[in-house]
Amino acid sequence: MVEWIISDSLIEYQDACAFMEQRAADIAAGTADEAIWLLEHPPLYTAGTSAKPADLVEPDRFPVFPSKRGGQYTYHGPGQRVVYVMLNVGQRGRDVRCFVRDLEAWVIATLAEFNVRGEVRDGRVGVWVPRPEKPRMADGSLAEDKIAAIGIRLRKWVSFHGISINVDPDLSHFGGIVPCGISAHGVTSLVDLGLPVTMQDVDLALKRSFDAVMAPQPCPPAG
Fold first, then answer.
1. How far apart are CA 28 and CA 37, in angstroms?
2. Distance CA 148, CA 1 (A)
3. Average pLDDT, stretch 54-62?
4. Residue 95 pLDDT > 90, yes or no?
């Protein structure tokens, strides 16, 4: 069973990390169910295990927290749905790359409920949205913006940390970092795309698409 936890108030980052660490340990020990935690943080930046100091453009803008998840710098704040996934990857094929692909597919399925086409890119973890209305890139390709970030950590084959989906955050807050180390592309949100979507709408879409994508099953080959 997967327990769904929804927090209505802003959750401090340190408190969330402490909860995830304990819950992951309990899941590994077999004393707690898996959990999905839906929440929002106050404005802050987190530095993943691959974060480069030069990518913290404005170090004094918001609190900065080292994070044990993979990846580089990312922003969290009000209007962004953070989805912390405390799941037993040992029961999902013991394949970290497969698990990350499943998380990306889950986000894509969720966005599809709002008629948004999310896509993945080789070498760029996360989910991207083509922006044909924007000027093309220097190489002639379509512009695209990031709408969801993914960064996880595993301990004893149990995941924690997870996903952030931009519903209606202040997109200017991303300007204090180079998000995920990628400067060539921008960030967007569901509301920025012109959709009057609420956090509750996104929560329902996440729940509806979860079982089809994230239920324990063999992982198909990549590509």
1. 17
2. 26
3. 94
4. yes
Return d(Cα 120, Cα 187) in angstroms, integer.
14
For residues 83 and 94, give the distance between their C-alpha atoms in angstroms, rounded to a whole number.
21
- Cα separation, 99 vs 101, in Å, equals 5
Residue 82 DSSP code: E
pLDDT at 214: 86
SS3 of residue 83 by DSSP: strand
Alpha helices, DSSP H, located in the chain: 13-29, 96-112, 199-214
Per residue in 187-211, pLDDT (tens digit) is 999 999 999 999 999 999 999 999 8
What are 177's two structure tokens? 């970092």
Cα torsion 21, 23, 25, 28: sign: negative
Residues 6 or more apart whose CB falls under 8 angstroms from that of 220 comprise none
Beta bridge partners of 127: 148
Count of beta carbons in the 10 Å neighbourhood of residue 54? 8
Q: How far apart are CA 188 and CA 38, in angstroms?
A: 20
Cα distances (angstroms) measured from residue 14 to each of 73, 114, 127, 198, 218:
16, 32, 26, 26, 34
Of the candidates 17, 98, 180, 219, the residue annotated as catalytic is 180
180 noted as active-site residue: yes
Closest by CA position to 84, among listed 3, 176, 205: 3
